[in-house]
Specification:
Glycerol uptake facilitator protein, 8 helices, two-stranded antiparallel ribbon, mainly alpha, single chain
Length: 251
């Protein structure tokens, strides 16, 4: 185990979360717009384009911002990390605010790039038990992948997360939002990736329950989980301002 003492400040970590989440939403919404425009009405082709762009962006963004903030880019991940003592609770609200602000900024950026209004409420209905349960499953699986990989081979987390989300786009009825900040921001885009604002709260609740269930399960499956809780995302050089954090050595 290697102690890390050069800890980025909370301000730097929060900025990293905001920028990373903004770029993620720009990729999700922008690729959805581009895919739909080029697919000639073929929804499967549009979804494939959206899926590949999102998966590729996730790898790049987690690798880029992971060493700074942990690259949570997701309130569900942040809350799960804090519950396992990886992130101090006093840092949670700044992280969540940065992620949500970044998500809406990313949507706005995508709209500007494609000549759409800055924000416009989605009319894309995603209601019903099947959709909500899909979000529970999607987020449960995401946190399972993160906790499982962080415990054994944390260096593969960026690739595992991207692979899982790429797959979950296709095996969940909701196309795997799995992220409360993403869900809220996508309610402000009436494009391919949108979700009707009225449907967003149920998605967010399902996501948080799924994240909590996966975290509780992995506390039991891997009893030593709190020892590596601060490696959510990728091994971090960031942490609290309390002192050095410990990350696994690379093998």
């Amino acid at each position: 185990m290697t102690p890390v003492t050069d800890t980025p400040s909370l301000t730097r970590r929060v900025v990293a979360e905001a920028i990373g989440t903004a770029l993620l939403l720009a990729a999700v919404v922008g690729s959805g717009i581009m895919g739909e425009r080029l697919a000639g009405g073929n929804v499967a082709v549009a979804l494939l384009a959206n899926t590949l762009a999102t998966g590729a962006a996730l790898v790049a963004l987690i690798l880029t911002f992971g060493p700074i903030s942990g690259a949570h880019l997701n309130p569900a991940v942040t809350l799960a990390d804090a519950s396992q003592r990886g992130l101090p609770w006093r840092d949670v609200l700044p992280y969540l605010a940065a992620q949500i602000a970044g998500a809406f900024s990313g949507v706005a950026a995508a709209h500007v790039m494609f000549g759409e209004p800055l924000f416009f409420a989605s009319r894309h209905a995603r209601a019903g038990v099947s959709q909500v349960f899909s979000e529970f499953v999607a987020t449960f699986g995401l946190l399972a992948v993160i906790w499982g990989c962080a415990r054994s081979r944390s260096s593969v987390v960026p690739f595992a997360v991207a692979a899982y989300i790429t797959a979950a786009y296709w095996f969940t009825g909701s196309t795997s939002f799995a992220n409360p900040a993403v869900t809220l921001a996508r309610s402000a885009t009436d494009t391919f990736a949108g979700i009707r604002p009225a449907d967003a709260p149920a998605f967010v609740i399902a996501q948080l329950v799924g994240a909590g269930a996966a975290t509780a399960l992995f506390r039991w499956l891997v009893p030593a989980l709190p020892e590596v809780a601060d490696t959510v995302g990728v091994p971090r050089t960031a942490g609290s301002d309390d002192g050095p954090h410990v990350v696994p050595e690379r093998r």
